[in-house]
Amino acid sequence: MKKNNRGYFPKKGIARDKIFSEMNHARRADVGWENGQSWGLVYQAGKEVDQIIRETYTLFSHGNALDPKAFPSLKKFETEIVAKTASLLNGEDETVGTVTSGGSESLLMAVKASRDQARSKRPEITEPEIIIPASAHPALDKAAHYLGVKAVRTPLDENFQADMDALRGSINKNTILLVGSAPAYPHGVVDPIKEMGELALEKKINLHVDACLGGFVLPFLERLNYQVPPFDFRVPGITSISVDLHKYGYSAKGASVILYRYPELRRHQFFVLTDWPGGLFGSTSVTGTRPGGPIAAAWAVLNYLGEEGYMRLTKEVMETTRVLKEGIEKTGKLEILGSPVMSVFAVGSNQLDVYTLADLMAEKGWQLGRQQLPAALHFIVTPPHTKVRENFLADLEESIPRVEEGPEACEGIAAMYAMMGTMCDQTDLKTFALNYLDQTYRLESKPD
Ligand SMILES: *Cc1c(COP(=O)(O)O)cnc(C)c1O
């Protein structure tokens, strides 16, 4: 047998102090999210909310929502989170849902529910298809891939919204579900949900709205009198909506909500096994054991902030978004793509290379997401950005002339992108990405 000596298991337990010091040391390499240096990944509402998250998460860190009889506390929190979210999104009296581990699980459940509903109601469909605009989140392709459903991607119009003609043209006898985003991650643009609802009703198919990003922002923007396009259950035809608690819900990681307009659709999400020796088994979503921490923390944060708290945070974030967008446009070299409605937007340029700009900004500690088709930088604005927005804009102004000086200014990095640019063959890119994952998660040798 080949010997594996890459990992090592500690012979004796390690002292508490050492554990903490090693973990804190490791943390130092992480992106400075507490100082607004990352534009995405972390959504933080401030010290008080942080404290509440830490305490409530810890209080329920052993809780397991798999068994509602053993943990009526978590069942109470979950059903109350779902009820509050449903009322925020103007659900009907019978609207139901589940708390999941995140947006991806919520989308997986939405696709599964629609697939299994179609299996029982439209058994003639043997090769189900879902239609997703180009800007919709990849978790939908992943869901389709896991569930044996075909995902059909459709193009966007010139405003980065789902093109209605393309959607209509893609519907065929196998179509079970349309998906729209409110907003879509890449450009922060909301799809024409009202028109999509009409199309879904006409074609008798389901419509899922992915509000993972916007579900806890758009309702408060509306209350703050911003122009918000229709996106929630008030739009006829919408059958399900996903909303992430761990994004603009400002809760701890590992929490999202999937809502269904009516209970029959949610039943198709559930899984039961009746003849297992371990007993009658029923599970609502993907995970078996369901961590109590994220559910407890989400319940606490929703109640702690309330409508007033979310409106205050939304107002602050929108003000910072306005300052940033204005500063970015004032450079005269960069432009905001499409018409983003909230605090998520993309910045492109037809005058300079935005990837080189991202490299220079990274040297100054700012981590910006890089997008393609077209090349753009990605911004998700959150409360920690309020304090650093002026610094960010100053660094941006300083970096732009350096990008214009040409690739010499930033040697190696630009060359790397040039190399990647030559790999336009999809299969090569796929191999490249798989190698990257393999390499990133390789196991280090035993440090002696
Ligand atoms: C983040 C996001 C998702 C995926 O959510 P995870 O919590 O990362 O799994 C899906 N859709 C949209 C629009 C998102 O922004």
- Overall pLDDT level: 93
Radius of gyration: 23 Å
Physical arrangement of strands within the biggest beta sheet:
1-7-6-5-4-2-3
Count of domain modules: 2
What ligands does this structure carry? pyridoxal-5'-phosphate
Total count of helical runs of at least 4 residues: 14
Distance between the termini: 24 Å
> How would you sum up the global shape?
globular
| Helix content estimate | 40-55%
Number of strands: 13
CATH class of the largest domain: Alpha Beta
Question: What is the assigned CATH homologous superfamily of the largest domain?
Answer: Type I PLP-dependent aspartate aminotransferase-like (Major domain)
Using the 3D structure, state the CATH architecture of the largest domain. 3-Layer(aba) Sandwich
